[in-house]
Each structure stands twice: as structure tokens, then as C-alpha cells.
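Q: Here's a chain of 308 amino acids. Please give me its 3D structure as C-alpha cells.
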Amino acid sequence: MSDSSRAARPGPDAPIVAVTGAGGAVGGRVARRLVRAGVPVRLLGRDPSRLPELPGALAAPPAPYGDGEAMRRALAGAHTLFLVSAHESPHRVREHTTAVDAAVAVGIERIVYISFLGAAPDATFTFARDHWHTEAHIRAADVRHTFLRDSLYLAGIPAMTGADGVLRGPAGDGRVAAVAHDDIADAAVTVLLADAGDGAARHDGRSYDLTGPEAFTLAEAAQELSRASGRTVTYVPETREEAYASRAHYGAQDWEVAGWVTSYEAIAAGEMATVSDAVPQLTGHPATGLADFLRRHPDSYRHLLGTG
């Protein structure tokens, strides 16, 4: 967390921040950081049993994004909504817009939304299109807002690698500046804490690209995984047809497989090669690179050990 964020520590009567996805990787990290900073936090999630028990934080009743009435009840009295995007689904945009409308209806003054790098209506990565439509709806609403556009998660790189030691997909020689969950959370908290200081409006209407410190190819990622795991990891570039065929055994729906495949195609198209200084600028510390991430999180590639 940056020095400016620590200087903006809120008082006991600070307004409530509602954190969605508080049982997840991003929302949970943000909630814990806000609690440590003395912010009154309301925890939202579809499954209350997954919400963390944090001193000073209150858990709201179950509030699925697509249930406008439940969202209004959960958000009533809060000042800021930290909106983590919903799980991918064919109805995700409708769920997001319902949640945003509920927030505006109960007087939420500010929304900080976790979006995606390169969000656009014609983005190669199909799920990034959902983020663009959500951003457009928030922009049209009468509410202050900030968008945090994450790159792919660093944790996703080992997760995309099979237990056979092969990272495969139609990414070509494209590059991706993947970002750590902790860096996203630190950046988000800096933005959220700004309302407690003199520069409360400096993030309003802004979009921040949150990336790692360098963009790497998947072949380079395989080399890092090899160094970290002590076994040979290889990258196998696929054609689109090969990518769909190699994922057919999962039995996933067409829209989901399209999201998986187009994430690689977006790398090939150069749409994830952006390297931004937003993480160090917002947090006051360097963004985490792939090698450091693997060193700190050996569990992320545990499935690669003891096989081959």
C-alpha cells in the first residue's frame, strides 16, 4: 500500500464500503486490506458461508448480482461499491447492470469496478466485451466511478499448464503482462481509500490498466515454469481448430470454450501486451513479475511436481 494511502486512514465514522465477491481471490484481499485500514466494510457474496470473518466487517444476506431486490437490501446505507465482476456466464452483463442499477437506486455514490484490459465491444477475448458493456452502463449512470482493468492473472499461467507439463493454446508469439492478485488488491485499496483523504475525486472517471512489469510470451512462461518446478515445461502453439478440439473433453458449453480459446487469441493479436505503470504509481511498490510470483507461490504449480 502506498504512503499516500496510509496517510488517508479513515476515521471511525468513515462511510461504508460494500465489497462484492468478498469470498474470492480479489474481493477477499480487498476486504482484508480495508479492514486493516480501519474502513467499515460490508461483505457481499452469493454464499455467505464463504465470506471471511473480519473484525469490524458485517456480512450482508445473500445477494446474487442478478437479484435487484437482494442487491438493494445488501447495499442500502453503503457509500461505495467495490464491484468484482461476476463469474462468466451468458447473462453476466445483465447481472452486472442489475447490480449497478440497484446500487444507484439506494444512493451508492461511487462504484469501483474490476474490469479487463482492452475492454471493447469488438475485443478478441469474448469476456472482455462483457466488461466494456458493463463499463458503458456505469458511465451512463449517475454515479462516480473508477475502472480497474486487469490483465490476465499471474496465477492463471501455471493453472493453464497441464499436469503433463504442456502449456497449449493459440497464442502464437504474442505477449501478456499478467498481474498478481495482490497487486490488484493493493491498487484497488489505494483508489478506495482516496475518499478518506483530500484527493477524493482524483480517481473519478479514470480507467487504470493493471499489469505486471513485463510482457512475456507463453514460451517464456514455460521456461520460467521449468526453472521453478525443476521439470521441463513446454509451450505448444495451437490453431483455433486444435484449441477447440483439445478442450472438447471438458464438456463445457460453447460460450465458455470460446472464452478460453479467445483469451489466447487475444494474446496472439497483441491485445494483452500492454505494460502499464499503474500498479507502482498507485501502490508505491513494483508490480510482481512471473518469476517472483512463482517463487512466492509454489502451490500455484504444485500439479507439475512429481510427474513427467
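Q: Can you summarize the key feature?
A: The two ends are 40 Å apart (CA to CA).
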